[in-house]
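Continued from yesterday's entry.
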Amino acid sequence: MMIFDADGAIFGRVSTTVAKALLKGEDVVVVNAEKIIISGDPTQTVDRFKVRRALVNKANPQHAPHFPRRPDMLVRRMFRGMLPFYKQTGRDAYKRLKVYMEVPTEFEAQMAKATKFEKKVPRKFITILDISRELGWYGNKE
């Protein structure tokens, strides 16, 4: 089992590492998912997420893609885009992925061995937590 601490890491770097580990057959746990950074202009990033969330199928709206608002579920869905989800290997890899906000008590002892990513903060960025709040998620008011 591999544990990744995504605190302050850029999403693209986290997702490539996680996707490669999943496709190799590893069980992967990502903690601090709400602190992942997406680089770029925050307003444009939020607008892209809002457009994606508003997609509807005219004939049957329940057949439209569903994008979550909660940070850990949003990150898990974003990792899905890095996997060949429509093949059996991608679906099996996606089942081996666990994403958590903060650090659960069951993994606190193993955090010393967790893989940490370089904290390279770009000039313009937004966190997953801020995106989730813009999309309408109201949990964990800090």
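--- second protein ---
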Amino acid sequence: MAKPKYSRVVLKLSGEALAGNQGYGIDVDVLRRIAGQIEQVVSMGVQVAIVVGGGNIWRGTTGSAMGMDRATADYMGMLGTVINALALQDALEKRGLDTRVLTAIEMRQVAEPYIRRRAIRHLEKGRVVIFASGTGNPYFSTDTTAALRAAEIEAEVILMAKRGVDGIYSADPRIDPKAVKYDNLDYIDVLKEGLGVMDSTATSLCMDNKIPIIVFNFDQSDHIVRAIQGEKIGTIVGGNVHRD
């Protein structure tokens, strides 16, 4: 197996990715596939932290659009990320991987509270760390959580797994056949063009801390491993990482 390009990474998984083709809930086969790739990555000596979304269960913006108080709707979404995190933890532990779920909202019966130094210590011991419940604050997305946690734990890259899209395009390739795929982008281009890879708060945080982002197709069974090995897949945004 090729030598990994990175030693500590943050993997951002959307809730929709966990739902698979059913579009909602949790697809057990998808969990097993993710766990298999993470097992390979950990066996390479890479420290893996995961930020998981909750859109397969509940979206705060959806609740807000229905007339619900935005903060309340966002807190509900945070609880959805905890459900996903526990499901992913179970799948990883079934493969023999030591895993810890750390939540920004305390719920000690099911997970550890998020403490930066504790998270880093878990990673140093070879444990997979799953960050749940976002930042613990309403109005912030799990994309922003990924950027924040990556900065806090000094991750070298954010791996952003997307369903059905193999990178960043000038428009949605599923709608516009003339959409152009980008191989490399600067953070400022993402912000100016509103390309939608992640929200502007998360992109700005990555830019300020020079954290590169690799956007790739989650549906490809080996893309997490290939991205960590430094292969040319998807789109890379900013940072000091260059294609070989």
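The chain has a mean pLDDT of 91. The two ends are 18 Å apart (CA to CA). Will compare against the first tomorrow.
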